Amino acid sequence: MNRELLAVEIIAGVGGNKNIQAVNHCATRLRFNLVDNSLVSDDQMKAIDGVMGVSNRGGQYQLIIGNSVASLYEEIEKLLALTEQVEEQEQDKEVKKKGIGGVINSIFDVLSGTFVMFIPALIAAGMISAVLALLTSFEIVSAEDPTYIVFSAIQSAIFYFLPIFAGYGAGSKLKMNPFIGMALGAILCYSSINGVEGLSIFGIGITAVTYSSTVFPVILGVWVMSYVEKRMKKITPDVLKGILVPMVTLLVGVISTLLVLGPIGSTLGGYLSNFISMVSNNFGWLAPSLIALIYPIMVFTGMHYSLIPLVMTAFSTIGYDPLLMVAGYVGNLAEGGAAAATAVLEKDKEKRAEAAAICISAVCGITEPALFGITLRNKKTLLSVCIGGFAGALFGGIMSMRAYGFVGGLPSLPLFLDPAGGFGNLIVTIISIIIGFAVTFVLTFILNKKGEKHV
After folding, report:
1. Would the CA dihedral through 229, 234, 239, 240 be positive or negative?
2. What is the model's pTM?
3. Are strands 20-25 and 29-34 parallel, antiparallel or unpaired?
4. Which of the chain's termini has less CB crowding within 10 Å, N or C?
5. Model pLDDT for residues 233-285, shown as the tens digit of each residue
6. Domains and CATH numbers, the chain
7. Residue 195 — left, alpha, or beta (φ > 0 → left; ψ -120 to 50 → alpha)?
């Protein structure tokens, strides 16, 4: 279908312009924040040619599009000409109606919506780390080589200035000026503030906090600024809005973050770090397999995005992630195994080619086509993926498998190279994904009958 026509049909299907508060996208999904979800029919949306599936989780209505989502998003943006968001009083009423569940959903929605925006930058940093690992492992360059210094600076800078990315993402998600969010992130990273002791504001001491490579402090600060900006726009005369609104918003955000929110965010990050260490030390062999067991459901609900703070905390504290990245990596390859088995089972040439293409996509790290096009349409296949992912990640957990960067599919395999040297962790990873892929392939093939509809 023509992208322009598909965009028109999707906008109409979700209730039109007035029912859309915001829209963004990730690797394969369009993510809508709607005024009234009851205006949308799941069956009607699924029937649209070009929509692979729907998901309504964490306050977002999500349409699974596939790899062409970016170009479709551009068409939707052109058509929408979004008006001002729905009055915040109406949103507050909606949250109150939902109670604590609505608050929790809103928190997860903000977290996932924030991280989705800059995941491509994290993937880029991860892949550059993979190139660097290959160059050093095969002794093409040394740690003193200028090439190593440049490549290392590229990937390190992305993680060091993470507060700037998080500030923009949170600002966009919370419907305030995202560049003010970026400004807060930049200020927190500035050398005169980042980790500096002995600072104070009007005699009130500031707790020394290292903000680089963190996300929680800046997200909390942007959350406060979003309310300040909205209030300032209402009470400030039009002639002064361009001056007072950004100044007061940023000033309140900086002061509240440095005095209160920064230490809270840092403490929260510390608790997460301790939690990761505790799980790794006591349940390290089992935890990745349990996550891999439910990983398809996590991707379906979008929960995996909300757990990215755990990954970022692990990278910034212990230097690797032994949980989500490990489980997700094996889970991605398990999805590929299910798609490969489906391609073998299919008699229809067109369906077989489609399943084969989906397999390649999953193996490369884009699993939504496999998940929504194959796995979730067949309970037996879903069971196979869960068991296959569990088996592969169990081996990885027992052998202390670790991810040293933000991984996805096979292209990011070098990110399992141990920076300290040696190929032991990489070999464990290869065996783990072979187990996950093979177990899923065999179970999918055995549990399903040849000739049945699988795609």
Report:
1. negative
2. 0.67
3. antiparallel
4. N
5. 889 988 888 899 999 999 999 999 999 988 887 777 677 667 766 776 777 78
6. 3-86 (3.30.1360.60), 161-281 (no CATH), 287-447 (no CATH)
7. left
